[in-house]
């Protein structure tokens, strides 16, 4: 997963709930060295609360778009693939734009 | 067609040829033996392959009909037992146990963090969920069970130095505090922060003592108010009389002198 078009990621969950496993694993995967190395400016914040709220992943992209994933019934792989596909789509768009500008 | 020389023929060759010749000899016809395409097998070879196909052995009674065998999972390897004992010891010895989520950190950062925490007498322990879960489910810490999912570490210590721990953890972005068990009370992250903001034990004791002493002091002052008022009035009266005496003594004295 390439995180270049991502500005910030906020992961919110309540560890005392029972449906947070996939969100926690997602957070762990995102903090891997290789993925963090693709974009050093991306801030990953973990919001740990205790109010029985649902696990939530909030991704802010560099072009202002926002992706909200409610991880209560999602698996880790689904979340990662969704994020990865969106990142790749944005990368392609940026490459096309830069190609149009250069010639 | 393969020119098949029968074994009898080879046997019938002159007795001075004591060697043997292969029973079947193949003759090149059309293409070579090793082709780049899949070469169709000779019919005899096809028949041989069909006859000698592998047939998997089937049990006489299908396993569904037999009674299910309960496989006893006795996975008590000594290592797991040792780890479990260590975990139990940890839970018994230490007053403060904090559970944090550990996302991968570079090794030097881990060592630095351990160093800072050990200065405050806090130990860092890496734990495996499979070992901790049975230990917790049997002990009284059942509510800590849902915490142990994905990679975790435990920060254990005998003193409750929460402020320093929070400061160190703030400096490390990849570790998130999930909850803590301080003096057998399970606290969430918010609870831990509130606990850090509490004043020290002596200050709180002094505050409670002062609050408790406030009421009886109020009652005693109320009770004494009447008699205190009376004594104050009498004092005032005496002072006025004295002032009157001195005044009257002063007036006749200057009257006498003049």
UniProtKB/TrEMBL annotation, chain A:
InterPro entries: mtLSU_mL53, Ribosomal_mL53. It is found in: Mitochondrion. It comes from the Eukaryota. The keyword Transit peptide applies. Keywords: Mitochondrion, Ribonucleoprotein, Ribosomal protein, Transit peptide. Belongs to the mitochondrion-specific ribosomal protein mL53 family. This is Large ribosomal subunit protein mL53. It comes from Aramus guarauna. The lineage of its organism: Eukaryota, Metazoa, Chordata, Craniata, Vertebrata. The gene is Mrpl53.
TrEMBL record, chain B:
The keyword DNA damage does not apply. GO terms for cellular component: mitochondrial inner membrane; mitochondrial large ribosomal subunit. InterPro entries: Ribosomal_uL10, Ribosomal_uL10-like_sf, Ribosomal_uL10_bac_type. Gene3D superfamilies: 3.30.70.1730. Signal peptide: none annotated. Pfam families: Ribosomal_L10. Keywords: Mitochondrion, Ribonucleoprotein, Ribosomal protein, Transit peptide. It is found in: Mitochondrion. CDD domains: Ribosomal_L10. Belongs to the universal ribosomal protein uL10 family. This is Large ribosomal subunit protein uL10m.
């Amino acid at each position: 997963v390439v995180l270049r078009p991502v500005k910030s990621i906020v992961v919110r969950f309540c560890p005392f709930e029972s449906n947070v496993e996939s969100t926690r694993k997602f957070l762990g995967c995102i903090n891997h060295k290789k993925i963090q190395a693709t974009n050093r400016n991306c801030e990953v914040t973990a919001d740990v609360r205790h109010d029985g709220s649902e696990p939530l992943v909030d991704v802010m992209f560099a072009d202002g778009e926002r992706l909200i994933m409610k991880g209560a019934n999602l698996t880790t792989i689904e979340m990662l693939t969704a994020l990865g596909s969106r990142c790749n789509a944005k990368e392609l768009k940026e490459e096309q734009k830069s190609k149009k500008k250069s010639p | 067609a393969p020119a098949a020389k029968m074994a009898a023929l080879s046997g019938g060759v002159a007795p001075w040829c004591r060697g043997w010749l292969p029973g079947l000899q193949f003759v090149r016809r059309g293409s070579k033996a090793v082709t780049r395409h899949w070469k169709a097998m000779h019919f005899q070879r096809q028949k041989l392959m069909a006859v000698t196909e592998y047939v998997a052995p089937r049990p006489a009674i299908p396993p569904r009909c037999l009674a299910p065998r309960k496989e006893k999972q006795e996975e008590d390897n000594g290592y797991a037992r040792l780890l479990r004992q260590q975990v139990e010891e940890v839970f018994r010895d230490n007053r403060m146990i904090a559970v944090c989520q550990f996302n991968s950190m570079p090794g030097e950062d881990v060592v630095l963090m351990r160093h800072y925490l050990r200065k405050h007498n806090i130990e860092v322990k890496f734990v495996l969920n499979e070992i901790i879960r049975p230990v917790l489910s049997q002990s009284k810490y059942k509510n800590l069970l849902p915490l142990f999912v994905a990679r975790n570490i435990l920060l254990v210590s005998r003193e409750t130095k929460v402020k320093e721990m929070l400061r160190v953890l703030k400096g490390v972005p990849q570790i998130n505090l999930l909850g803590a068990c301080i003096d057998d009370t399970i606290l969430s992250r918010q609870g831990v922060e509130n606990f850090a903001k509490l004043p020290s034990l002596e200050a709180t004791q002094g505050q409670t003592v002062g609050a408790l002493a406030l009421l009886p002091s109020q009652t005693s002052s109320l009770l004494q108010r009447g008699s205190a008022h009376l004594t104050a009035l009498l004092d005032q009266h005496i002072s006025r009389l004295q002032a009157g005496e001195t005044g009257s003594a002063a007036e006749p004295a200057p009257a006498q002198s003049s």
